[in-house]
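[job 0417] fold request received: DUF928 domain-containing protein
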Amino acid sequence: MAWLTRSYCSRILTVALALGLAVELPATVQAQLTTASLGAQLPETWEFQAPSGPDAPLPVNREAGGKREIADALPCVMSDQRLTAIVPSSGLGTTVAEYPTVFWYMPKTRASGVELVLTDTKNREIYSVNYALDKSGDGTAPAGIMSLPLPALANFSPLKIGQNYRWQLALVCDANARDKDVVASGWIQRVSPSPNLAMRVKQATPQERVTIYANERLWYETLITLNQLRRDLPKDRDLEDAWKKLLKSVGLDKIAQENSGDKIVAVP
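[job 0417] inference complete; emitting structure tokens
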């Protein structure tokens, strides 16, 4: 039986279930039927409608300028790569979290630090924080994917369900000339969880949680769960392939090819 193809076995199971029969397949064939790569279970594309209308947040710029021909406008960026908010192409990602974690790609930079600002649809500042960047001997911070959680203990209310929020990430090139900041931004929309989401997540393995979140189109949960798996299992090829597919699915192909490793901005 080891030569049975996956599609042939699937037809056997379909017929058996229709007739109420029990079919016992070899363990190797059962594994073939039930095991699929994590990447194969992720969506090919993430389509979110960007908020519109008078109450929509300000437009976002997922990718900050970064081409060498405009290098004079980016005095602290040391590569052709762009500061990029890791969000779908519309700029909008959904979450069920009261305090989600945002991700961005940071190019090699001489910036003194980063600033994160969260605003509501009326452009009112809800939260902001600044962090210094760790520098190497040449005075630069290396490129890599970074993340920052919105902390629950920062004295601002949980994100409201059904509301849109804009997060803006700035590389501070010159603290005395903030007009030289390099800026990228994205949207967060908090949504209501499906009725049984919490139970399914509780009963699932970490890999299964990635698939659950992806199928629910919860961008920020999918991103942080898959990223944590990669940090815990850095040599797992399946996780790496899934990560690359996730980024490619939102048009961030160049970042998907980066191999510089992840860096986390720790919250004190």
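[job 0417] notes: The longest strand covers residues 164-172. The beta strands are 84-85, 92-95, 101-106, 113-119, 125-132, 144-149, 164-172, 182-190.
[job 0417] exit 0
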